[in-house]
Amino acid sequence: MAFFNWLASVFKSAFSKKEIAAPIPTPKPVQDTKPSEPSVVKPEPVVVLPPIAKPDPTKINLLDAIKVCIKPYENLREVNGKNRSALIDKIITSHGGSLGSAYCCYGVQQLLDDVETYYANHGVKIKFDIPPGGSTQALWAKAKAEYKFINAKPASLVVWRHLKSPGTGHIGTCLSFADAGEFKTFEFNTSAGSAAVVRDGEGAYYRTRQLKDVGDMHILGFIDLEKAMKYL
Q1: How many of the other CB atoms lie within 10 Å of CB of 221?
Q2: Burial of residue 84, with CB atoms counted within 10 A of its CB: 0-12 exposed, 13-18 middle, 19 or more buried
Q3: How far apart are CA 215 and CA 164, in angstroms?
């Protein structure tokens, strides 16, 4: 009996103890909730390109340009009759002439067009202040006096006149200064192998000409293409 009383007292003592509350966790300090500043994007550096240099016309030699433009005509010959070939026809008609016309002056006009194109292809716009057309005598008469001179000079036009027929003549492109009374040319509508200044030959040729009269061909003078060349 005493044992049962002891056991009952043990159970009563166990169940009569108060429950121990679980420890309350210590709250963490509240962190600053201030929004962070946005990141600053640095601008790309501005690249300043150097200005594009304008073409320098002084770096193009006029005589060299003329020589380059002469090349396509070095072997120009009449093949389809008097003053005719496909290229000669094109040269004449492109400058207002009729098929079969004498083309020494038309050839010069075409060469000047080609030189203008050569300069344009190198970024420089020019225009020759030379009267148009196919008449050598009209060209000389209308050319400005300040372009004319009497001595041979590279990159100029040389104009002849028939003394016995003053309304006609011949024209060529001068490629050199005079040396011992002679100078170099390139001419359309002339002939090779003769000292005579032929104004109605069979093609285009390099020639060596004299300053003095040859037959009835008299040099009226030279036209300075450098002075006649105008920059646009």
Answers
A1: 17
A2: middle
A3: 10
Domain limits of the chain?
A: 57-231
* DSSP for residue 197: -
Q: Name the residue type at position 93.
A: T
Residues 6+ apart with CB under 8 A from 141: none
Q: What class, spelled out in words, does domain 57-231 have in CATH?
A: alpha beta
Mean pLDDT of 130-136: 98
By mean pLDDT, which of 34-48, 108-122, 168-182 is the weakest? 34-48
Q: How much is the pTM?
A: 0.77
Distances, alpha carbon 40 to alpha carbons 32, 33, 151, 168, 208, in Å: 22, 21, 76, 84, 79
Per-residue pLDDT band for 193 (boundaries 50, 70, 90) equals confident
Answer with the residue of higher pLDDT: 53 or 200: 200
pLDDT confidence of 151, banded at 50, 70, 90? Answer: very high
User: What average pLDDT is seen over the chain?
Assistant: 87
CB 96 within 8 A of CB 132: yes
The amino acid at residue 202 is E
Backbone angles phi, psi at 154, to 5 degrees: -60, 150
- Kindly provide the residue ranges of all beta strands, DSSP E only, lying in the chain, ordered along the sequence: 126-128, 148-149, 156-162, 165-174, 182-190, 203-210, 217-224, 229-231
HSE value, Cβ hemisphere, 13 Å, CA-based, for 198:
16
Q: Report the C-alpha gap between 221 and 228 in whole angstroms.
A: 15
